[in-house]
Amino acid sequence: DGGITQSPKYLFRKEGQNVTLSCEQNLNHDAMYWYRQDPGQGLRLIYYSQIVNDFQKGDIAEGYSVSREKKESFPLTVTSAQKNPTAFYLCASSIDRGRDTAFFGQGTRLTVV
Amino acid sequence: KQEVTQIPAALSVPEGENLVLNCSFTDSAIYNLQWFRQDPGKGLTSLLLIQSSQREQTSGRLNASLDKSSGRSTLYIAASQPGDSATYLCAVRPGGSYIPTFGRGTSLIVHP
Fold this sequence. Notes:
The complex is a heterodimer.
Chain A: E1 4-7, E2 10-13, E3 19-25, E4 31-38, E5 42-51, E6 54-57, E7 64-66, E8 76-78, E9 87-94, E10 103-104, E11 108-112
Parallel strand pairs in A: 2-11
Antiparallel strand pairs in A: 1-3, 3-8, 4-5, 4-9, 5-6, 7-8, 9-10, 9-11
Chain B: E1 4-7, E2 10-14, E3 19-25, E4 30-38, E5 44-51, E6 56-59, E7 62-67, E8 72-77, E9 86-94, E10 101-102, E11 106-111
Parallel strand pairs in B: 2-11
Antiparallel strand pairs in B: 1-3, 3-8, 4-5, 4-9, 6-7, 7-8, 9-10, 9-11
């Protein structure tokens, strides 16, 4: 079945560590996105990518990094520079710009311990 | 910058009621508007997608309308059931950008 897979579902990070969240899609979508969700804040865009080897910062990119080496993969690294990383992270994809539906993964809950 | 507002933030109703959830957006130049459902600790599931040229979309007990000129969309849920309990999010894809902008959602509880 086609879809988006995020892993792991739960992730714990110690202070000062970098951690990487995985996002893989087999929908042949060009565009991929990372959102952060905090209680009462809705979804905020971290990074997005329209095409392989290209990505753009969203509204809250500081302390995060991404890569897009393959069409189907868009991993997110939460670096030690992100001071408040505890949140629910959602990955999404869509065919291309404009008129199509966005599909979401099941999310990764990151907790700093 | 596009801003999306959802009212109410929370709603608790008895089973069987018909519901209206509201979504408003500040820039009427949009490609489409999408309604999602999110269960606790889960990702988002698409419910309905309305293109900018459309006025409404229906799926089962759900009906979503779009009034671009006034910057509003409503999600109508008929004969609500406890299984409808979830958070409902509205996302707008602005013209000139394909990046969806989300509202903060409406948390719905339908009690038996």
